[in-house]
């Protein structure tokens, strides 16, 4: 049916200075584009600064953790060697034996000690004992070192012990597979040695363009670089003495970015060297964002060009819209700025029609459709065919197994469950009634499944007679049981809380349901945490049904929040007064 309105002709003259529609649209459009472009550029710069800051913090922290790991391993190695050196009787006697039997007894005892130390401390790669003027060596290693590494270590130890007059010596050994840091302590014709791997503690996520290494005695030793990359080429071009100029943290030097961290208890420092490039300051997403900004500017310029040359069309649309409204066609789409002479008649028409459209089309027609849709969803939710099929199957199995007591209890609770759902036109129930219904449902679930289920309910006495939408608590309890059953696992614990919150704006009912299950799926959380959730691919039908009923009954005075924190957590805040009785 069409309604025909006779709108009295009004004087279209507008007091005050008049504006050109074409000029105002162009000015407003360009101002909007420039503001948005400026905001996007500021946002891009901030993103890049944040990216650089995060990268610097990560690399600095990686070097700190790497250095702390090596320092801890070095101290553990040093403590182990010192303890044996100063306290082990077999080591004292190994250089002063009187017979071969005594010598081998001491060697055997000392070797057991070395094995105990290595096995009890995985940070230590290996321990060595040299005797007979360092010609003979026995060792204990943790299994990470290859035979080639072991042979190189033995020979390196002999060389250091024979060439050095110092009691305590250190040496770095580069093998085919690793970089090792070794210490030696000698006494008479015997000596102790031990080593750790300098690749321990490297960050799990490494920059593919970086070289990680250590500095020892003003010499750089690479520890890790991307496979196929020459580590020496990464820091080519650095001038002489560059290591002496490094400061803890980030250093910029000759086109390289160096993160430096010296160790306190060893003559070592750890470094990460990267070639300076644009990717240290921006990621690929920033490049994409910059391209999108350029595309936006190009598109906006093209749009403004179109608007500038097609300004007459909106005027024709407004004139046509006015004619359609007078003929009873209510669906009109147009946009115009304020104080424009050409659209004054349209404004008068809209003012005359707004009340009728909102009253008869929006508030009545659409609201009734929404109520009908929600009611159908509610009835479908009540039916729950799979649940009742399982209930009947469960009762059948109980009777077949002659569990008459359990079957009688189960059928009684199922009967109470059905009576509650089929009560005539009950949109609201008291908190006490809903709690009893939930307790009955939990008891049914305990009889239906072998999975452990426990439900605790804490409710203020003053809220027991407060009315809430039917199935408010039951919806979340069913969700907890559903997702916990699908995920399997240990016993399910459900906690229900109903509290009265008194505020200056009025009293609120705070309902919280939490469990220790796997929680809501991420895609469901994204849907149900919206202000006006929309069902998507069948997700959360029960929860969204409840949210729509709450929005219908309480309007904007109700709120909800859902999250996963050690399980699913669901919270509803309801007022004592409702918009729809």
TrEMBL record:
Q: Signal transduction histidine kinase internal region domain spans which residues?
A: 377-449
Q: Which residues cross the membrane?
A: 25-43, 287-308
Instruction: Report the source organism.
Output: Candidatus Blautia faecigallinarum
Q: Which GO terms describe its molecular function?
A: phosphorelay sensor kinase activity
- InterPro entries, sorted: Bact_2-comp_sensor_kinase (IPR050640), HATPase_C_sf (IPR036890), HATPase_dom (IPR003594), Sig_transdc_His_kin_internal (IPR010559)
GO cellular component terms attached to this protein's record? membrane
Q: Residue limits of the Histidine kinase/HSP90-like ATPase domain?
A: 472-555
State what protein this is by name. Histidine kinase
List the coiled-coil residues.
343-382
Q: For this UniProt record, give its keywords in alphabetical order, as a comma-separated list.
A: Coiled coil, Kinase, Membrane, Transferase, Transmembrane, Transmembrane helix
């Amino acid at each position: 049916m069409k309604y025909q309105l006779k709108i009295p002709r009004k004087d279209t003259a507008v007091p005050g200075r008049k504006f050109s529609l074409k000029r105002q649209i162009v000015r407003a459009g360009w101002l909007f584009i420039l503001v948005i472009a400026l905001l996007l550029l500021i946002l891009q710069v901030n993103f890049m600064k944040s990216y650089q800051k995060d990268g610097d913090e990560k690399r600095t922290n990686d070097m700190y953790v790497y250095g702390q790991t090596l320092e801890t391993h070095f101290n553990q190695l040093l403590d182990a060697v010192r303890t044996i050196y100063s306290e082990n009787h077999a080591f004292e006697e190994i250089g002063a034996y009187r017979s071969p039997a005594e010598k081998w007894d001491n060697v055997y005892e000392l070797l057991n000690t070395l094995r105990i130390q290595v096995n009890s401390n995985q940070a230590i790669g290996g321990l060595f004992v040299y005797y007979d003027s360092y010609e003979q060596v026995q060792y204990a290693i943790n299994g990470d070192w290859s035979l080639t590494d072991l042979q190189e270590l033995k020979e390196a130890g002999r060389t250091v012990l024979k060439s050095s007059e110092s009691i305590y010596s250190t040496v770095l050994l580069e093998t085919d597979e690793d970089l090792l840091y070794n210490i030696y302590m000698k006494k008479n014709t015997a000596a102790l040695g031990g080593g750790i791997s300098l690749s321990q503690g490297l960050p799990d996520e490494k920059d593919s363009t970086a070289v990680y290494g250590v500095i020892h005695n003003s010499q750089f030793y690479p520890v890790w670089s991307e496979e196929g990359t020459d580590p020496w080429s990464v820091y080519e071009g650095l001038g002489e003495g560059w290591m002496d100029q490094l400061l803890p943290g980030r250093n910029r030097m000759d086109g390289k970015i160096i993160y430096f961290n010296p160790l306190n208890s060893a003559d070592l420092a750890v470094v990460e060297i990267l070639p300076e490039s644009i990717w240290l300051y921006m990621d690929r997403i920033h490049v994409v964002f910059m391209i999108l900004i350029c595309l936006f500017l190009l598109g906006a310029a093209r749009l403004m060009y179109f608007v500038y040359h097609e300004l007459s069309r909106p005027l024709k649309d407004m004139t046509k819209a006015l004619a359609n409204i007078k003929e009873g066609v209510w669906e009109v789409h147009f946009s115009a700025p304020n104080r424009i002479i050409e659209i004054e008649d349209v404004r008068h028409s809209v003012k005359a029609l707004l009340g009728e459209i909102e009253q008869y089309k929006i508030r009545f027609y659409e609201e009734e459709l929404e109520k009908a849709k929600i009611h159908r969803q509610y009835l479908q939710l009540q039916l729950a065919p799979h649940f009742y099929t399982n209930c009947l199957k469960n009762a059948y199995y109980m009777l077949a197994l002659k569990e008459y007591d359990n079957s009688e209890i189960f059928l009684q609770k199922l009967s109470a469950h059905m009576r509650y759902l089929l009560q005539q036109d009950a949109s609201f129930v008291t908190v006490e009634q809903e709690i009893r219904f939930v307790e009955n449902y939990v008891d049914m679930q305990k009889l239906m499944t072998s999975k452990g289920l426990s439900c605790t309910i804490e409710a203020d006495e003053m809220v027991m007679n407060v009315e809430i939408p039917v199935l408010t608590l039951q919806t979340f309890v069913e969700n907890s049981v559903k997702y916990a059953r699908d995920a399997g696992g240990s016993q399910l614990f459900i906690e229900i809380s109903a509290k009265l919150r008194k505020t200056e704006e009025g009293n609120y009912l705070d309902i919280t349901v939490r469990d220790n299950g796997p929680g809501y799926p991420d895609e469901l959380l994204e849907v149900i945490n919206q202000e006006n959730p929309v069902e998507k691919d069948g997700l959360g039908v029960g929860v969204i049904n409840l949210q729509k009923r709450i929005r219908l009954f309480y309007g904007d005075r109700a709120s909800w929040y859902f999250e996963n924190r050690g399980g699913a957590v669901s919270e509803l805040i309801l007022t004592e007064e409702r918009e729809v009785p």
